[in-house]
Automatic annotation (TrEMBL), chain A:
Membrane disposition: Multi-pass membrane protein
Transmembrane segments: 12-34, 40-59, 80-105, 117-136, 145-162, 182-205, 217-240, 268-289, 301-322, 334-355
Family in the record: Belongs to the amino acid-polyamine-organocation (APC) superfamily. Spore germination protein (SGP) (TC 2.A.3.9) family.
Protein location: Membrane
This protein's name: Spore germination protein KB
Main localization (coarse): membrane
Keyword field: Germination, Membrane, Transmembrane, Transmembrane helix, Transport
Pfam families associated with the record: Spore_permease (PF03845)
InterPro entries reported in the protein's UniProt record: Spore_GerAB (IPR004761)
Protein origin, superkingdom: Bacteria
UniProtKB/TrEMBL annotation, chain B:
Compartments (UniProt record): Cell membrane; Membrane
UniProt record similarity statement: Belongs to the GerABKA family.
InterPro entries assigned to the protein according to its UniProt record, in alphabetical order: Spore_Ger, UPF0353/GerABKA_families
Record keyword Transmembrane present: yes
UniProt key word Transmembrane: yes
Pfam families named among the record's database cross-references: GerA
Alphabetical UniProt keywords: Membrane, Transmembrane, Transmembrane helix
Record-given protein name: Spore germination protein KA
Region (Disordered): 1-21, 494-520
Membrane topology term: Multi-pass membrane protein
Basic and acidic residues composition bias: residue spans: 511-520
Main location: membrane
Length: 361, 520
């Protein structure tokens, strides 16, 4: 077995929560607000329930092949079709890593537009390579320390933005535009939860695999709770029309805070969230990619792959899109379908297939 | 057989042939072997004499033995006569107090005993040699520890002599479960090293691991416990200490009660305890002797101090170079006005000031006491606080920032840890100079990633925070009152972590029967 470390169920759940939450706040929020306007929060709840399909089928799939990662399961138990799907998953992980890296760059471009792109790419890839190189345990522990800190700060931000500037009547009328916007929005949220599939690379290494269903549902619920604040906040603050036009609505919201006479702008908090959240997210997918590739190539260790992959990710992140508009197009058009396919449909199909196979055997 | 660390084989060195050689029963032969080994050692005394027609010879190092003891040995032996119808050996056994005499039958141990200050008695026609405990123990008195002073709590500190140190520990932990295992390390120094632990509390695996790592050490000399520390720590390349070194016996005993293993080195007043967690380096021994509330607050002051030490210079550089809009306008104008006339970028200023602080600190430490340390401090103060600012090289705000940083770094209770954290500020400062706050956070994350990946004798460095063991949290984020400290720090010692009964909290006596009747 390549990975010798073990993490607790809570650490695994926390990794998923951080990874999902940061991408939710950075990009999915824009998508959902754009699609569902003031009904975004309904879409979020409905989408979470839909998302549970992918989460639970992945967990069940993992539980029926104990000790094997998603890639190993695909390469060992599902003949040549499995191998093709395995390669698809590796490509999917790769796309998700470069997406995270690119988002890191784009987010920082907002505040530091003079610094060249490669500088940001280098910094974040050096950091995440270091984390991936040190392995799963390190990543789990790092996240276990940082996530509570981020949550505490986030709650503080929520309280600070609670002033009279917010107008929650902006959220009315409920379902004012009919069911369609909510349905589309909830599909986006479902796609977002499809990213949980990366945990297929980690679930075999948790300490108590039997309780994973609980862990998975816990992840969905907690992530949803973390998502409800940001999806209502910008709408309450700016109104649905304004919020839908913003690239990073949470960032705009955070920029709005003034804590009395002490500190004027809270960019730093946004910087903190992006850096740490994206760091964990990139590291998680990067780890999944390295481990999966090593297992697909039947290597004894994944560490030699880390540095070459860093090059590929760096180049990919720079070539991924010409500018933010192109990236946005990807997020709006392709992100959700890809994730629904990889995160919900394929795990469900694989689970059913595996179940039938075992019944026969 | 381990490699020897001397250029060529000299007489003074115990070669494999001589060291394991048994002692011959001829006095002359024994003496000649010893004389050969101790050739050109003018401080060794061979004193042949007769005790009731038996020819014997005393051998000792004149500087190492206590003359009073020599006199007593002489007196004790003078009573011997062959008429008494008993052997020489049994006479000695009766005549001298228990534990002061050993019978040796190997040359290697004889040489070692001589070197450690024992007096050797070689008797003709006997196949063993007597060694009398006569070490002249002139060392420092037990005084208050200089590096870890406290207001409350025990005031004694370790000294250089290992026997005194072991006594200090034994006196606090009066139980047969306290195990002390001796080792000798260093081919030239033959330093005594003792492993102490409480059986049934310390994890056997960790004790074995300590044993193994210590016995693997192959070095010419061990002059301080740090030699050992750097050779047995888990991650040799990490700057962070994963073994706690302390001058306080109470701290060692507290560690032992938590299931740790102590390592005491002869000649060093610093004992080591392992495994050690990161949070321990932010705990002072005094935390446990003060009230729970006060200790908790002081702990948080230290946490804040740690962060200030790490990021205050970076924060200032980041604010002035990248994130000016973070500050409120009046303060921003102040800073801008201050910085207007300054020639150098704020990053250079910061590095210059940090360097100056290191100069002052080092000069103050190394300057001969005759000049007085105060001179340096005053010089430094004038240099930093006044001249540099007035000359327009350094902004006054930067002077404040560096002074505060210098001050807070001394909040950290452990010296080794303080050193590391102080230097961590410099890379953070550089990163911030290049990338703004992103650099600071990335730098901190690099550090944290490194920290959480560390282990100390198999125990994760960041436990019990991560991996989370919430039984341990009452001694991390707070210092729970003693009645609530009913478990040991988890993960260090044995699985069963109960340390105290549950009923230690004093409660008011229950209402008497009459009161209850009245209520009815």
């Amino acid at each position: 077995m390549i990975e010798k470390g073990r993490i607790s169920n809570i650490q695994a759940a926390m990794l998923a929560i951080t990874s999902l939450t940061i991408i939710g706040h950075l990009i999915l929020l824009t998508v959902v607000i754009h699609q569902s306007r003031q009904d975004g929060w309904i879409a979020a709840i409905a989408g979470t329930i839909l998302g549970l399909v992918g989460i639970i089928s992945l967990v069940k799939l993992s539980q029926s092949f104990p000790g094997l990662t998603l890639i190993e399961i695909l390469f060992k138990h599902f003949s040549w079709i499995g191998k093709i799907i395995g390669v698809l998953y590796l490509i999917y992980f790769y796309i998700m890593v470069i997406l995270g890296t690119r988002l890191f760059v784009e987010a920082y471009k907002l505040i530091m537009d003079e610094t060249p792109m490669w500088a940001f790419v280098t910094v974040i890839l050096l950091l995440t390579s270091f984390i991936v190189y040190l392995g799963l345990e390190t990543m789990g522990r790092l996240n276990q320390i940082m996530l509570p800190i981020l949550v505490i700060i986030a709650i503080a931000v929520v309280f600070m933005t609670m002033g009279e500037k917010k107008d929650y009547t902006n959220l009315l009328p409920i379902m004012g535009d009919g069911f369609m916007p909510v349905t589309i929005g909830s599909l986006s949220v479902m796609g977002w939860f499809g990213e949980f599939v990366i945990l297929g690379m980690i679930l075999p290494y948790v300490q108590r695999p039997k309780k994973l269903v609980k862990t998975g549902v816990g992840v969905a619920v907690v992530t949803l709770i973390f998502f409800l604040g940001p999806i209502t906040g910008p709408i309450a603050l700016f109104g649905a029309d304004e919020a839908a036009k913003m690239a990073f609505p949470t960032f705009s919201e955070v920029r709005y805070i003034e804590a009395g006479e002490v500190i004027n702008r809270f960019d730093v908090i946004a910087v903190l969230f992006w850096t740490i959240g994206l760091m964990i997210r990139i590291a998680l997918f990067y780890y999944g990619l390295s481990l999966g590739l090593a297992q697909a190539l039947k290597l004894n260790t994944y560490q030699p792959l880390v540095i070459p992959l860093a090059w590929l990710i760096g180049i990919g992140a720079i070539l991924f899109a010409k500018n933010y508009a192109e990236l946005n197009e990807f997020l709006f058009e392709s992100y959700v379908p890809i994730n629904i396919l990889m995160g919900a449909i394929l795990p469900l199909a694989l689970f059913i297939w595996g179940y039938k196979k075992r019944k026969k055997g | 057989m381990s490699k020897s660390f001397t250029g060529k084989k000299k007489n003074g060195e115990m070669t494999s042939e001589t060291s394991s050689a048994p002692i011959s029963s001829s006095l002359e032969k024994n003496v000649s072997i010893l004389k050969e080994i101790f050739e050109s050692c003018d401080d060794i005394i061979f004193q042949p004499t007769q005790i009731d027609n038996k020819s014997v010879c005393f051998v000792y190092l004149s500087e190492m033995v206590n003359n009073q003891v020599l006199y007593e040995i002489d007196r004790g032996l003078s009573h011997y006569s062959t008429d008494a119808n008993r052997g020489f050996t049994s006479h000695i056994r009766q005549q001298f107090p228990l534990g002061t005499v050993n019978e040796l039958s190997e040359l290697q141990s004889v040489v070692r005993k001589i070197l450690s200050g024992h007096t050797i008695l070689i008797v003709d026609e006997l196949d063993h040699i007597f060694s009398f405990h006569s070490t002249n123990s002139t060392g420092r008195e037990v005084t208050e520890p200089t590096t870890e002073s406290t207001v409350k709590g025990p005031k004694e500190g370790f000294v250089e002599d290992i026997h005194t140190n072991l006594r200090l520990i034994r006196r606090k932990l009066q139980t047969p479960s306290l195990k002390v295992e001796h080792l000798t390390l260093g081919q030239q120094t033959n330093t005594q090293v003792s492993i102490v632990y409480i059986k049934g509390v310390a994890d056997d695996g960790i004790v074995n691991e300590v044993h193994q790592r210590l016995s693997r050490i192959d070095i010419d000399g061990v002059l301080d416990s740090h030699y050992i520390e750097s050779m047995i720590k888990d991650s040799p390349k990490s700057p962070f200490p994963t073994i706690y070194s302390t001058e306080r016996p109470d701290r060692v005993c507290g560690g032992l009660l938590d299931g740790k293993v102590g390592i005491i080195t002869d000649g060093s007043p610093f004992a080591l305890t392992a495994p050690s967690m990161f949070v321990e380096f932010l705990h002072s021994g005094e935390d446990y002797y003060d009230s729970s509330l006060a200790s908790t607050i002081i702990r948080w002051v230290r946490f804040v101090g740690l962060f200030v030490t790490l990021i205050l210079p970076s924060f200032y550089v980041g604010v002035t170079m990248f994130h000016q809009d973070l500050l409120q306008t009046p303060l921003l104008i102040q800073i801008a006005a201050n910085r207007e006339a300054l020639p150098y970028p704020v990053l250079i200023e910061g590095l210059f000031m940090l360097l100056t602080f290191e100069f002052i600190r080092e000069a103050g430490l190394r300057m001969p006491k005759v000049f007085g340390g105060g001179v340096v401090t005053i010089l430094g103060l004038v240099l930093i606080g006044q001249s540099a600012v007035q000359a327009g090289i350094i902004g006054p705000l930067m002077a404040i920032v560096i002074s505060v940083t210098a001050l807070t770094s001394f909040i950290l209770p452990n010296y080794e840890f303080h050193q590391v954290i102080r230097f961590c500020g410099i890379p953070l400062l550089l990163l911030t100079g290049f990338f703004g706050f992103m650099g600071t956070i990335v730098g901190l994350m690099f550090g944290l990633t490194h920290l959480v990946s560390l282990r100390s004798f198999g125990v994760p460095y960041f436990s019990p925070v991560s991996p989370a063991r919430k039984e341990g949290w009452k001694d991390v984020f707070i210092r729970a009152p003693w009645w609530a400290m009913d478990t040991r720090t988890p993960g260090i010692g044995v699985e069963n972590i109960d340390r105290a009964g549950k009923g230690n909290r004093a409660r008011p006596p229950k209402a008497s029967k009459e009161d209850q009747d009245e209520k009815k």
